[in-house]
Design goal:
The structure is a single chain. By secondary structure, this protein is of the alpha/beta class. It is built from ten helices and nine strands. Strands 1, 2, 3, 4, 5, 6, 7, 8 and 9 form a nine-stranded mixed beta sheet that branches. Helix 4 links the parallel strand 1 and strand 2.
C-alpha cells in the first residue's frame, strides 16, 4: 500500500471522528427561539410571547418531575392535583377591564348583591327600585322575557349584570347562577320580585338594621293593605324590626315556628352569604316557583326565631302584578296564569313531601348506626 493511500485512509477516519463529535455537541444546544403554529400567533406578536415565556418562574416541578406528585385531598373536588396556592374556589360578578393592571380594575368593590327577575313591562318600576340602592350594591337582572338591550336607557344598567333566559322564574335563575361560591364576595344577597313599591325604602339603611339586629334572613315589612298574606310580614309602625307575631288560632303549633316566627315570604327575601349557602342547597332543580321554601328557611340558621325577622322601618308595598303568569301557556281551556298558579300549588305539595321524606330517611339512617 502506497504512502498516499495510507494518508487518504487516515484523513477519512479523522474526518468521521470530527463529524461525530460535532454532531453530538449540537444535541445539547438550547435554542431560545420558539416557533408557534400560524393559527395561534396571528393575533399576537411572537416577540412578545418569547419575552413572556422567558419570564416564566421555575417551580420545583419544572425540572422534569411530574405534577401528579401533588395530591391535596382538602382542595375542592377536582382540584386535588393542584398546589393549594393556585386554587381559586370562589368567584364574583365584579366587572373587569380588558387592559391595565388587574389590581387597579376596581375603584370600589360592591358589598351586597341585588338580584331582580324582570320583564320589560316593569322597566319604570325597576328603575325606581334600583335607585334606592347605593354603589355598595351590585345590580343583577334576570330577564324572563328575553329583552335586554332596551334597558340601556338607564345609566345604571350599563354596569349591571344581565342574564336572559325566557320564561324562567327567579328561583330557577338563583339555582343556576347564584351558587354560593359564585356570590361569596357579597355579604348579603337580595332575591326580589319586580312588583315592589320602594317609596319608603332605602338599601343602606336597611342593611344597617339587618346588621344591628343580627338577621341572617330577612325581608322589609309589607304595607298592610297591599298583598298581605301572613301577619308575620305585616309592617309594624312602632318598631325597627320584629321577629315574632300572633296568627290565627291553630296556625302555629309553636310560637317559635312559622308562620308565627322564623318566617319571611319569598317575594323579597334577603340572605346573609352564610345562610344562602344553606338555602341554595335546599332549592330543587325542578321546583321553579319556590313555594314551600318560606316555611323551611328556618332550617338554615340557629336559633331561627332570633336570626330571621322583618325590618319594619324600611318597608315596601307589594303591588301584586302577576306578570310572570303571562309567561305561561293556555291549556285545556285555561288561561296562562291559571296553569302557572296550579303548578305553584303542586310544587308546594311536592316540596313538603320531599322534605318530610328526607327527614324520615335521615332519622332512619342515624337510628341504624
Amino acid at each position: 500500500m502506497g504512502t498516499s493511500h495510507r494518508r487518504l485512509i487516515i484523513t477519512t477516519f479523522i474526518g468521521v471522528l470530527i463529524g461525530y463529535f460535532v454532531g453530538r455537541s449540537f444535541q445539547s444546544v438550547s435554542f431560545s427561539k420558539i416557533h408557534l403554529p400560524t393559527s395561534i400567533s396571528t393575533s399576537f406578536d411572537i416577540a412578545g410571547k418569547e419575552e413572556n415565556i422567558n419570564q416564566i418562574s421555575e417551580s420545583p416541578f419544572s425540572n422534569g418531575s411530574s405534577p401528579r406528585q401533588i395530591y391535596v385531598s382538602t382542595n375542592p373536588r377536582g382540584a386535588e392535583l393542584l398546589p393549594p396556592g393556585i386554587v381559586v374556589s370562589e368567584s364574583d360578578f365584579f366587572l373587569r377591564r380588558l387592559w391595565g393592571e388587574p389590581s387597579e380594575d376596581l375603584k370600589k368593590k360592591p358589598k351586597y348583591l341585588l338580584t331582580i327577575t324582570v320583564g320589560l313591562n316593569q322597566k319604570k318600576n325597576i328603575d325606581r327600585m334600583v335607585k334606592k340602592f347605593s354603589e355598595d350594591f351590585q345590580i343583577m337582572l334576570f330577564h324572563y322575557d328575553g329583552q335586554t338591550s332596551q334597558w340601556d336607557e338607564f345609566e345604571w344598567s350599563k354596569s349591571a349584570i344581565h342574564v336572559s333566559i325566557r320564561r324562567q322564574t327567579k328561583w330557577w335563575y338563583a339555582k343556576r347562577f347564584l351558587h354560593p361560591d359564585v356570590v361569596a364576595a357579597y355579604e348579603y344577597i337580595f332575591i326580589w320580585d319586580e312588583d315592589l313599591g320602594v317609596e319608603h325604602f332605602n338599601g343602606d339603611k336597611y342593611m344597617e338594621l339587618v346588621k344591628k339586629h343580627g338577621l341572617d334572613i330577612s325581608q322589609p315589612g309589607l304595607e298592610p293593605n297591599n298583598g298581605l298574606t301572613w301577619q308575620m310580614t305585616k309592617r309594624r309602625g312602632d318598631q325597627e324590626v320584629h321577629k315574632v307575631t300572633e296568627e290565627k288560632p291553630g296556625w302555629c303549633s309553636d310560637p317559635h315556628l312559622p308562620p308565627c316566627a322564623a318566617f319571611v315570604e319569598i317575594m323579597a327575601p334577603v340572605f346573609s352569604r352564610e345562610a344562602w349557602r344553606c338555602v341554595w342547597h335546599m332549592i330543587q332543580n325542578d321546583l321553579v316557583h319556590g313555594w314551600g321554601l318560606d316555611f323551611a328557611l328556618r332550617r338554615c340558621v340557629e336559633p331561627a326565631h332570633e336570626k330571621i325577622g322583618v325590618v319594619d322601618s324600611q318597608w315596601i308595598i307589594h303591588q301584586v302584578i302577576p306578570s310572570l303568569g303571562s309567561q305561561g301557556q293556555a291549556e285545556n281551556g285555561k288561561a296562562p296564569w291559571e296553569g302557572v298558579r296550579a303548578r305553584c300549588k303542586n310544587e308546594w305539595s311536592l316540596f313538603q313531601n320531599r322534605l318530610a321524606n328526607a327527614d324520615k330517611a335521615y332519622l332512619e339512617e342515624i337510628g341504624n348506626r
